[in-house]
From TrEMBL:
Catalytic reaction list: a lipid A disaccharide + ATP = a lipid IVA + ADP + H(+)
Enzyme class name: transferase
Job of this protein: Transfers the gamma-phosphate of ATP to the 4'-position of a tetraacyldisaccharide 1-phosphate intermediate (termed DS-1-P) to form tetraacyldisaccharide 1,4'-bis-phosphate (lipid IVA).
Keyword Kinase: yes
SUPFAM superfamilies: P-loop containing nucleoside triphosphate hydrolases
EC number, UniProt record: 2.7.1.130
Name of the molecule in the record: Tetraacyldisaccharide 4'-kinase
């Protein structure tokens, strides 16, 4: 059981981490399944997510995204989901979130943190952004993964490096080629992720001409009214509507051709810290 979780509330990059880990395990010849609660979905589960027949309303957006990379199970009861995955032939289970849930034993716990934001003011909700104190969380973790560009990594090391006593991996999110260069292209961008501004910064780095941005709530439903308003605004601005891969799976099928998706993937500076942990679980 490999838990990909966080200490912060909100987006830190858990889903891209789970996707990258799935591909890395596959390259090592290990058949991995993902188990997730399916936040925002209606299904209780355990049920295996089917990309072509399930919707984000049923499974949640993150589960649909994960299902493109590895067999994925939605289960409000994570233990039941893990059992279903094992019965279906899983050799490893990637638990998307659930670091604070004691229902399952974690053979490997990876805490993911946004390098720029770090652990905020170090305080627990509502005084700060944390689900639990940093010291308590890191004491239960096997590895810390900080995600961000070099400048953010340097900032994180300066602010929090003294508290890190466990293996530490570093990575960044890199956009995949879209097929249509964004340099100079007028864009209306929207994102309903943990920190939408990171997506808008990515578009700027790609050279897009951001005419309008809409920062939505994480997992916010893309209602007909909302989408009609943004498409109308984009037409007035002469702009292409652009969103994240996670938001795109919540779009109704008839709107997907009208909205460009810019996917990102996690790239690690060095897989060695994670491979050392995987060697412990899967000795050759």
């Amino acid at each position: 059981m490999i838990c990909v979780g966080n200490i912060n509330a909100g987006g830190t990059g858990k889903t891209p981490t789970a996707m990258a880990l799935a591909m890395h395990l596959s390259a090592r010849g290990i058949k991995a399944h993902a188990v997730t609660r399916g936040y925002g979905g209606s299904l209780e589960g355990p049920v295996q997510v089917k990309e072509l027949s399930h919707t984000a309303d049923q499974t949640g957006d993150e589960a649909l995204l994960l299902a493109a990379f590895l067999p994925t199970w939605v289960a409000k009861d994570r233990l039941a989901g893990a059992r279903a995955a094992v019965e279906a032939g899983a050799e490893a289970i990637i638990l998307d979130d659930g670091f604070q849930n004691p229902a399952l034993f974690h053979d490997l716990s990876i805490v993911v943190v946004d390098a720029h934001r770090g652990f905020g003011n170090g305080r627990v909700i509502p005084a700060g952004p944390l689900r639990e104190p940093v010291e308590a969380g890191l004491a239960r973790a096997d590895l810390l993964l900080s995600i961000g560009p070099d400048t953010a990594q340097e900032k994180f090391a300066k602010e929090w490096g003294g508290k890190i006593k466990l293996p530490h991996a570093k990575g960044h999110l890199a956009p995949l080629p879209t097929g249509l260069p964004l340099t100079g292209i007028p864009v209306l961008a929207f994102a309903g992720i943990g920190h939408p501004e990171k997506f808008f910064q990515t578009l700027k780095a790609l050279g897009a001409d951001l005419r309008a941005v809409h920062a939505l709530d994480d997992h916010q439903p893309l209602t007909d009214t909302l989408m009609a308003r943004m498409l109308r605004e984009a037409k007035q601005l002469g702009a292409q509507v652009v969103t994240t891969e996670k938001d795109a799976v919540r779009l109704p099928p008839e709107l997907r051709p009208k909205v460009m998706t810019v996917p990102v993937r996690l790239e690690l500076e060095d897989w060695a810290p994670i491979d050392a942990q995987l060697d412990r679980l899967f000795p050759t």
